[in-house]
Automatic annotation (TrEMBL):
Species name: Hohenbuehelia grisea
SUPFAM superfamilies: Glutathione synthetase ATP-binding domain-like, PreATP-grasp domain
Family: Belongs to the eukaryotic GSH synthase family.
Enzyme class: ligase
EC number: 6.3.2.3
Cofactor annotation: Mg(2+)
Name of the protein in its database record: Glutathione synthetase
Annotated region (Disordered), positions in chain: 382-409
Length: 546
């Protein structure tokens, strides 16, 4: 699409007095509405004493209405796609497994897969799974081009965060508008251009659906959390909504707590036993931990993870769904014919036996339109098909090391300036960008190439600026707004409840329910390759539709 909106003119000008009023309103609003974090500390006290406001932007980020609506529409298809990937054991063994796939060379992936394989051999007790997803996008406008499109950064299947804080930033920006009219500096500021954000209720509706499917009213939902987590309020808002609107209690535990509190009885029921109360039955396990190797410092944490998974509680996500969220899966989906395995447009989606989730060519094309080029560093074919202007680019050659490299690695050297390399990790800070790529490839043991993908860089519109307020409590820029050139990443939340259903003989794998439930914007300084609110590179933001 093309738009008459000029990104380079954003944000509209403010004088210092106006800006100060907005900063004061924004920071006090954030603190009084739980748009907050725990402060950075070597060790968090057991009972928190204080909170700081989340890093935030003063103005919402401009997003074209058609692209926002397109992202919302895509979410329903992605919900079904990733649910089906998680139900396709054969595919996941092939791509992520420790015998044939990435798990051979990536120890973390290998450990998760091996535990899952053992579970399958022993007999899975709960075939229903819940995914709370977030699909992330950047606007894409290659240099010199008018056309603007939406490209997917990644699809998260575990610990997708910032849903509830995002709702609060949207409310903050509406408050700033209500209080000041944003000083009439932009005609785009009007209520119909601030899209609603009800992500808290939306995500909770997924957890409630799983709880109801489990079918025991007084069971509780287990939140598995990290020790020392600073983003606790984002999680607590889900807990409050569950209790206040649905009368469902939550128990928060770390892997370390669970090593002594969790047990699975002969009926496969998961129980949590705490010192002061009788054992509590768990309906649903919501993981806000377990997505990174540092959550598993010893064998004991893997043992705990698989103990939980062995029970009849519904996992959000299961190990299978966590593996489905791997960057390798995202890349393999771009190979010809792979998407059709999951969303077959030929016969009313006969493969999956679900008339209600039948997708046609139009939807498959729309998904593919949202992707940029990707390939595996260990692959020989298909290594740079969509790199613009690459057809005549020579492959790197010269040293004997390079000459024996797979085409995927050689091509990553040649096109380094336009690429990011990604391993199978979550949580930010793991990728290798542009100029750093060749030296990185020199040190990467050849065996480990299979764990990395190369991805074309998305090129967001140039010249967009914003006022960013870093987290409170001093430090560089603390408490003041920094006007800087920015890139905004849009996330769309969705969920799916899926698994096997039906009588023993006629079991069907299906998506029982799925929904698109809200959105998030994170805005980062242009100079930073990587975003990451928790890791300090970016701020929470919202949307003004343009
Ligand atoms: P993680 O799972 O660790 O969040 P991501 O794939 O989201 O990993 O990458 C982290 C960040 O790197 C993104 O938020 C985005 O800012 C940047 N990034 C990732 N892929 C691309 C890309 N293809 N083009 C431009 N920026 C990217
Ligand atoms: Mg990400
Ligand atoms: Mg991620």
């Amino acid at each position: 699409m093309t738009t008459s909106f000029s990104f380079a003119d954003w944000p509209p000008a403010l004088d210092d007095v106006q800006l100060d009023e907005l900063i004061l309103r924004a920071t006090t609003y954030a603190l009084s509405h739980g748009l907050t974090y725990l402060p950075v500390r070597d060790q968090q006290p057991r009972f928190p004493l204080d909170a700081i406001h989340a890093p935030l932007s003063i103005f919402p980020a401009p997003i074209p209405r058609t692209l926002f609506e397109q992202a919302q529409k895509l979410q329903r298809i992605y919900n079904v796609l990733y649910a089906r990937i998680a139900m396709d054991d054969e595919f996941l063994d092939e791509v992520m497994g420790a015998e044939k796939g990435v798990g051979q060379v990536d120890d973390f992936v290998g450990q998760l897969w091996a535990g899952w394989k053992q579970l399958r051999d022993d007999g899975v007790k709960q075939t229903l799974q819940l995914g709370l997803f977030r699909s992330d996008y950047l606007l894409h406008q290659p240099a010199g081009a008018d056309a603007l499109s939406l490209k997917q950064v990644e699809f998260n299947t575990i610990s997708s965060s910032f849903g509830t804080l995002s709702e609060r930033v949207a409310a903050l920006h509406r408050h700033l508008y209500a209080a000041t009219g944003y000083f009439n500096v932009s005609s785009y500021f009007s209520p119909q251009n601030f899209p609603p954000n009800e992500t808290t209720a939306g995500l909770v509706s997924g957890l409630v659906a799983a709880h109801k499917a489990y079918g025991v009213d007084d069971a509780r939902i287990l939140f598995v959390v990290q020790a020392g987590e600073r983003n606790v309020f984002d999680q607590r808002w889900l807990e409050y909504e569950l209790l206040e609107k649905h009368s469902i209690h939550v128990i928060r535990q770390t892997f370390s707590d669970l090593s002594s509190s969790a047990s699975v009885d002969s009926d496969s029921t998961l129980w949590i036993t705490r010192p002061t109360s009788s054992p509590t039955r768990i309906s649903t396990i919501y993981f806000r931990a377990g997505y990174t190797p540092t959550d598993y410092p010893t064998r004991a944490e893997y043992t705990t993870r698989f103990l939980l998974e062995r029970s009849s509680a519904i996992s959000c996500p299961s190990v299978a769904l966590q593996l489905a969220g791997g960057k390798k899966v995202q890349q393999v989906l771009t190979r010809p014919g792979v998407l059709e395995r999951f969303l077959d447009p030929r016969e009313g989606d006969g493969t999956w036996g679900e008339k209600e989730n039948a997708f046609g060519k139009e939807e498959l094309d729309a998904l593919r339109e949202s992707w940029v080029g990707m390939w595996g560093l260990d692959e020989d074919g298909n290594a740079d098909p969509s790199i613009r202007g690459s057809s005549s680019a020579p492959l790197a050659s010269g040293s004997s090391v390079v000459a024996t490299e797979p085409r995927g690695t050689a091509s990553a050297r040649t096109h380094a300036a336009r690429l990011v390399l990604k391993p199978q990790r979550e949580g930010g800070g793991n990728n290798v960008y542009k100029a750093a790529i060749p030296a990185f490839l020199d040190t990467l043991p050849p065996r480990e190439r299979a764990a990395w993908i190369a991805m074309e860089l998305i090129e967001p519109p140039e010249g967009v600026r914003s006022f960013l307020v870093r987290a409170g409590g001093g430090g560089e820029g603390g408490g003041r707004a920094v006007r800087t050139e920015v890139v905004s990443e849009l996330g769309i939340f969705g969920w799916a409840l899926f698994g096997e259903q039906g009588e023993e003989k006629a079991k069907e794998r299906k998506v029982l329910e799925e929904r698109e439930v809200g959105w998030l914007v994170r805005t980062k300084g242009k100079e930073s390759d990587e975003g990451g609110v928790a890791t300090g590179f970016s701020v929470l933001d919202s949307i003004v539709l343009v």
